Each structure stands twice: as structure tokens, then as C-alpha cells.
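TEACHING EXERCISE
Course module: macromolecular assemblies
Task: Read the component lines below, then compare them to the predicted structure of the full complex.
Student: A.B.
Group: 4
Components provided:
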Amino acid sequence: MLNTFTSGLRHKNIHRRSNAPMVAKKPHDIIPTLGESIRIIPLGGVEEIGRNMTVIEYGEDIIVIDAGIKFTDYETPGVDYILPNIKYLEERKDHIRALVITHGHLDHIGSIPYVIDRLGNPPIYTREFGALLIQKRQVEFPHLAPLDIRIVEANDTSIPLTANLKVRFFGVTHSIPDSTGVIIETPYGDIVNTGDVRIENENGVPDQREIEHYKMFKDRNILLFCMDSTNIEQPGFSLSETFILKNIDGIVAAAPGRIILATFATQVERVIEFIKMAQHYSRKVIIEGRSMKTNVEIIKHLNLVETSHIIPIEDTTKYPPNKIMIITTGAQGEEFSALMRMSNKTHKFVRLERSDTIVLSSSAIPGNERAISKLKDNLYRHDSKIITYLDSDVHTSGHGRRGELEWLHKQMPYKYFMPVHGNHYRLKMHAELAARLGCPRENIIVPDNGSILEIQDKGAKFVKLREKAPSEDMVVEGLSIGDISDVVIRDRKMLAEDGIFVVIALVNTRTGYLKKSPDIIARGFVYLRESQELLSEARGIIKRSIEGTTVGMNPINFDYAKNAVTEDVSRFLFQRTAKKPIVIPVILGV
Amino acid sequence: MLNTFTSGLRHKNIHRRSNAPMVAKKPHDIIPTLGESIRIIPLGGVEEIGRNMTVIEYGEDIIVIDAGIKFTDYETPGVDYILPNIKYLEERKDHIRALVITHGHLDHIGSIPYVIDRLGNPPIYTREFGALLIQKRQVEFPHLAPLDIRIVEANDTSIPLTANLKVRFFGVTHSIPDSTGVIIETPYGDIVNTGDVRIENENGVPDQREIEHYKMFKDRNILLFCMDSTNIEQPGFSLSETFILKNIDGIVAAAPGRIILATFATQVERVIEFIKMAQHYSRKVIIEGRSMKTNVEIIKHLNLVETSHIIPIEDTTKYPPNKIMIITTGAQGEEFSALMRMSNKTHKFVRLERSDTIVLSSSAIPGNERAISKLKDNLYRHDSKIITYLDSDVHTSGHGRRGELEWLHKQMPYKYFMPVHGNHYRLKMHAELAARLGCPRENIIVPDNGSILEIQDKGAKFVKLREKAPSEDMVVEGLSIGDISDVVIRDRKMLAEDGIFVVIALVNTRTGYLKKSPDIIARGFVYLRESQELLSEARGIIKRSIEGTTVGMNPINFDYAKNAVTEDVSRFLFQRTAKKPIVIPVILGV
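Instructor-supplied answer key:
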């Protein structure tokens, strides 16, 4: 697992498994050369939601779109982040001309500090808000070379990246300022990637500005269209952000005391509106939560909203409750978040009261339901008023639902379609949508991570190669970055369920008898203090098992004794407890 | 943690912590005597959804309603089930007159095999379907005394349980046959517990049979009303079961090949309708999944539906695909469920095909979203048609939404209200609903697990005592049942994140020097084979650290050396990996 990744520590560049025996080449070792085609390889984001990265390759030039991370889950305990596998790119580092960023969310920029040097530090093209977020994050990695960031405008004229490839950014509605889609202009036509996108609308009718905006595609020659599939499962249009802000405005207007608005820090545009709302109602604003503070710093820096009414939390008590708005993270029930601390009375400055109104302006991210339940249980222990999306329309997603996706398809005169940004089943549903809207099935490819797609014959053919780019998970764990080790993860899962049982025995190498009663160390197995009888029986079994093999054996075969005691102890513990701890025998000869 | 729970093994009755020093009495050690009041104690189910159990106590008599389990989650790795804490009952075992069961779901009957002997094997009053499920489960616990099950009818006349307490069952609409609410008739009035309940309705208008049925309460003297709060968050009425069955019927009618219906085995009434549907469309039925098979056995036994068209799975190929219906568990993405095996091509008899239609007739249970995503990813790898509740109305809950709860409140002329069956926030929302409907706030109590509520002064007062019944989690883990050990759980979580690092050193007690280079055993930490340099540095640190304390020390203080090496090694590993494995030093003097 360990190419030791160094932050301020000694830099290593261990070539792993360099001593490993030669093995049969896997398909990705024999990827054919490119020829005249355009190659498209999604390295992440198409078997999951997260770690987005798409490679566009033509001739000797590679453009990379986005470099995101995915957060870990119970499937990979101990892992911090999961990255796209970039081996294909590392092997072609000299061809990489640009990393193009669609917007500043972590599932699009989070990998940059872990991969940028391995990609040869290419220039990063991004709009300003994304640039600031990238730079802010980079501060935590002081050993890295400075980034070559090139700030661009949306709807600019095209930017030439190579002799044959240009990029053009176009603004999209999402949830963070400066969200864009990108057009990669190739000799055979455009490759359009929407990035994350929704359509502002009123009851399912797109806003006039959206309609006008997408007219720019009417006359373009779109060879390949790639699009966000996150909310394909939800029929219709999502609620408009305008509508939910109006609802929250009404709640703020009616709140008798403090108003506490909890949302994702990534909902930057909504946070900007909250800050405006506070000014309108003459409330001072307190910003809580590290990521929220980071983003508000950038909002301030860019002068996106008047912020003179933001006050430090220490000053809360200088104003009456009905003059206070707290904007905080923690609506997902994160363990040490500001809102969780308010809810369980461990927050340094905020004690919840009956007159408080708390709005959870978010929905539950799959997997967070239990944490959110806990948060709500804690919040409801106070007598504050609590409003969630179930009771009132106080949240909408930054990703368009099926109706919005359908509308977008209709704005794009494309030839080929590749759904991205979603689990396999979402992509498959998105492919079905495209087919239903008239795209010939042979013009649609649902990729996996590492799938190599090619547009061949000057645009006449769209195929998926038999070969794949390396796509095993790459993980960040502590200071290391590298392949995931199945062995280690399997051990962790076993340890989490049944713990570990270490047996220590000193054997007299001359006689084969134990020098003294064996020692036992167990963790995560059973509560030892209450299991003395079990331990004492186990000691007897250990002694009998080891001596049964070692007494009279000369010289003593310790491996043989270890296997015997592991088997006997495991069987005994399972019979007595129905648990299977990892049994580790330490047998020392003296 | 270990009162060893014995199944076929030696029976133990260890009094844990018998040697522990005297500690200050906790409130629950000094619970006042009962006097003339009626005591109500929810021992489970009011800080969670699951492990329902409510105690009703009057004079020298105790009635227990339900004995459920809760399933474990990532908060308690390695634990199998969580039980209600029954210490209050164990201490008053001689007063227990009856265990009354509302219906046969595991969150209402699952604890029986673990607690029934500790409760002194009281008679169990239940309707027939519940009785069969209880008996089926009991077969797995052959060492237990036979159960004293007394099968009752709903809407019977009251059954006298003691001189002062009678019980009467009333049928309710839920999702399993023989679901009931119970009325405990006391000298001061009725205690009504709805059990799990929904209201069959058409577009929010209750079915006429529901209206007629609940008229029975019009003239009763309901002292205390206890009611299911599961779906209080959802406004309005839930979809009617009739409606969703009609939808599924349409899907079955149109399916060109096999139809695969996946739902919870607990949705027994729906399964019965599926079997009828198959007959109507001349399809043979295959039942897949252990719990589904168990429940269908009971359906057969009770003759609840014609089952002659159920065939063994081996016979599938004898019929054309459009004559087959498979009813299966696994809609929640359970790892080894039949549907998951079909989806990942490991099912022995079923290979999915393009002409198959798969209906997931369920919604996602919070916490299962990722498993369901995986299932859907696997299913969509085939070209079968897949229909979920997001796209079509193919599922409705067995628990009423807020509108249904509101309607039920209006049918019940009650004095006091105690919401049950839900997390704290759900109960609090339910209390708000009752208050809004006119119940005076002082007549409503939101309990915690172990809260002791009393109806005093012959019904004139409803209070919560300061004292609590013991309410710490009791857990089933392998063969043991007992308190949860925070130490063990904490270790398991640490092991899951960072693993374990065992250091073994032999010290020459005469010189204080190590006899040889120390051994290291690590599990779940890093992949050792790729970390040789780290290990070799660690060995150096171990040697220096131990010898730094032991050389020249006489006699050697091993604890001192262990502390030193633990600290030094932990610090080194954290600096090098940012991981904090549990470090265990084994230092042996020879």
C-alpha cells in the first residue's frame, strides 16, 4: 500500500514490487498506440459519485478534466480518500498539456495535491473561485512545487492548449460560484462535458436565461456529449433555488429569536444569499465550521457580497437573539461539527434555546442517515424549532433531475453520448434516456473507470477498446498514497468484528516444556476482566497444544507448534464464544 | 460483557463484577415502591426504531408488551443484536404475569429466546401468525424450556390476566397477518398501545372498514394512549397497499419474461398477494431467501392462500420464462441474499436475462443505501428491466404517515399520551402533533428507554419519576448476552481504523540487553511486505527504547520498559504514517 507520501518528511519514491516475479501482462499493459483517433478515458466518477477525472488524448497531447477525490466508507476502514488511478497518465506524463477544472468541489479538485507532481505539474485551467479553493487546499501541502494556475473566464473565446486542441468554458448553474462546463475543440468536432449542472426553473419551466444560454450549442458540431448523471433517478425538475430561498426568507422573517442555518459549505451560492438575507433583516452573521469559514473567506476576498455584518462568535451576546443569524456546517450530523456541538451542549459559545429556529438546509447524503438521526435526536432534546426538507422546501440539489437532463439533451445537437458522474446504474439509466430521446444505441457507451473509448475514422466511429487503463483504487491513508491492500483491509474488518487474541509462550528448547504459564493479550475480543475462566481454560489448551508438539521434538519446529496452537485456540474460542478473533501465536525458544 | 449465554453448552450464571468495590448507588437502585399507581416503563423502542418493549405494572402484577431486538450498526462492530435492558424485570420476575405480543416482526418478538427464561418463562399471549413465527425462531434454541404460548383472537372479549388487569387485542392494518394493538384494562381506565399501524386509504380518505373498526374506541375510557411514531416525519397519508398492488399487477401483466419480485420477507401480506397474482397470470412461483421461505411455510400451514403453484427452484427450466414468478428477499442489497447472488452471477439456478423484469418492492432502510446502490449497479450490468419505488409506486410502508397518525388520534378519546416506536426526535414530533390536536401538554410525556412513568391518584396525575430503570444496552454477541463493553467496542473501532502493532522482545534479565532483534507482528496497519524499511527502523527504536530503560536497572521494572517502548513506537509510527495502531509491547525476561 505504501508509496510513502511525504509532507514535510523524507521524500520516497519506492518502486513497489520491483522484486516481484514476472507475471503475465494484463490487458492494460498492452494498450494499443493511439493512431489518428481521439481517446477518451474516464479514470474516475463513472462507477461512483466522486473522484471525477476524464482523460482526452489526441496525437501526442493529453488534456485531463478534473481531479477529484471520493470519501471512504465502511468498505475501506482506515482509508482517508480514494483517488482516481492515474497510472495511465503517469506513463504518459510528458504528453499532459493541461488539467482543466470545471468547479471547486472536492470531487473535482480534491486529488490535485496527491497527483499533480505525478502528472508532471501541468498548468491548471480554472475559473477564479475554483482557483482560490485549490490554492487554499494546497497550503496544507507545503512540500509541493507551486501550482501553475491559469485563471480563465467562462464564455471566453477558445483557449488553444495545443496545436490541435482548444478549450472553451461555459457557465452552468450548480451550487458554487464559477461552475462551468467545458468544450474541448478537436479537429473532428467538440467534446462537451457539462460538469455538475442543474437548470434553474419555475415548476419545471426553464428560466429564460438558461434557454438563452444554451442556444450557443445550436450550431456547434458536438461530436461527443458527456453529462452529469447524479440525479437521473428522480423524475421531473428539481425545486428551484429561488423558491427554496424564498421559503427560507419567510422562516427567517418569522423567527422570534436566533436563526441557525445549517447547510453544506459547498453550497456557496446559497450561503451568499443567506448573508444577504441577514442584512435585509438587520441580523449579524456568525460563520461556524472550518470549511464554511474557508469558503466565506473566499467570498469576502472576491467581494461577492457585503460582509460587514459578519461578526466573530465571541460577540454574539452583544446583540439580542433576534438580531443573530448563525450559518453553520454540520447538517449531516458530522461528529465534531459546530451544529453537533451545539446540539450536545459542548459548543463553547452557543447554547440552544426555545426561541431558536434551526433550519437543516440539506438532504441526507446516502450513508449519513444514522448520523443525521442522532443529530436530530440531540437537537430535539432542546425545545428549539427545527425545520428540515421533509417539512418545508428548504433544500434543493445542485444536480439536475431527469427532467432537467432531458431538457439539456435536447439543447445539444450531439452525435455520441457518454454518461458520467454516477454509479453504473445511474449511467445505464442515463444511457436509456439518451436512447429514448433518439440517440442511436451504437452511439452511446456506458464506461467503467479505466474504459478506453475512441472516436475513430475522423469521427465516423465511437468504440470501446477491449483493453483497459489501470483502474484499481488508489487510496490516501495517513501520509501514504498507493494501491489499496486487500489483505490489510480484510484484517481490519476481521479485527473490527472479533478482535485479536495474541498467545505468548516461552518454550525450553532443550525439554520442549513451557518455561511458565503462557501470556494472553486480547483486544476487541471479549472483556477480559469478566472472562477469567475462559482465559484460564485457554491457557491450559495453549500449554497442552504446544507441548503436545514440542516435547520430545529435537530440534523444535516452531512453525509446526504455531500452527497447532492457532488451530486449537481458534476452535476453542469459537466453541465457547462463537467469535473468531485473529489468533496470533508468539512462541519463543529459550 | 460475558454472561456466557449457553446454547447446548454448559450453562453459566456468573454474577459479573461481584468483586468490584462498592460504588455510589445510581438512581435506578433506589426506585421507589409502587403504591396505588400504575407504572409504565418503555424498556426499548423509544430512543430508536427497534427492540420494542413496554412494561405495565400495577400492584404486584407486571404485564410486558413485546420483546423485540434491534440490529447492530457501525457504532457497535461485532455485536449481533441489541436487546432491551431487562434488569428491572429480572428483579421483579415473580410479578410478571404475561408477555403480550402485538405482531410477529423481529423488533417485537426477536428478544424472546434471549430473555424469556430471565423473565421466569411467563405465558406469551399472541395471535396465531406471531405464535408460529415465535415457535419457528425458538427451534434454534433447543436448550430453552418450552414456551407457554397462548393463542388469542383479536376483538375477543377481554382476557383476564390478573385480578385487576385484563388484555384485549384489536386488529390493525400493518404488513403482516394478525397484527394487533392491545388494550390493557386497568381499574382506572384503558391503556391502549397501537402496535405498528397504518390506515388503509384511498388518496388520504380512510377505508370504510378502518372507520367502522375504530368506532369501538368511541365510548371507551382511554387513560393512556401509546402509538407508533415511525413515519411521523412524512406528511399526509401513505400510498395504499391496494394501489401499489394494482401497479405491480400491471407490471406482472406486461412482463414479457420472468418476473422477479423482491421485497422484505416481513411484508407477508404483500407476499400473499404476489402468490395470488401469479395464479391469476398462470405463473409458477419460486420462493427464494431463507426468511421468505420460513414465512411462506407459515402461510401454507395456515392455508392463507392457494399454494399449489409454488414449485422448487430446480424446476424453473420446465416452464417458459413468462410462466415464472420469483419472489425473493434481498431488495436491501444484503451481501449473500438470493437477489444479490442473481445480480452478481453466483446464483446456482438463476441467470438474469434481458427479458426479465425485476421489481424492488421496498424503499431503502436508512443505512442500507450503499448496499442497495451496489445491488442496483450489479443488476444494471444485465439488461433486465428494473423497476424501483422511485420510478413507479411499487412500495408503501407498514407504518402510517403523519396524516394517518393524526386521523388515529382523532378516533381515540384519550386522556394521556405517550409516543413510542421511534427515535427521540420522532417521539417529540409526535408529541407536538398530539398537543396541536388539543391534548394538554402536561398530559403528554416523551419517554426515554427506562423512563418510569406513573399514572397516580387513580388516574388524576401522569408523571415521570426522577428515577430510571436500568437502560444500558444489552447485547447479543456470539453466544454471550450482557452489557455492552465500551472498552471492547472502542478497541474494535481503533483496530478497524489503524490496526495493531505487537512488539516482542526478550530481555536478558542479568544485563538488560535484548537477547536478539525484537519481533514485530502487525495486522490491519500497513502492508508489511512493502514496508521493510519502516519495520527495520522500528526495530532499532524498540531496541534503543527498551535497553535505554533496562540496561543497568536491577531488578528490571518491566512495566516501565513497556510504557517507554509503547510511547516511542507509537510516536515513530505516527510520524512516519500518520496512523495510530494499538501498540502492544510484550517484553519477556530470560
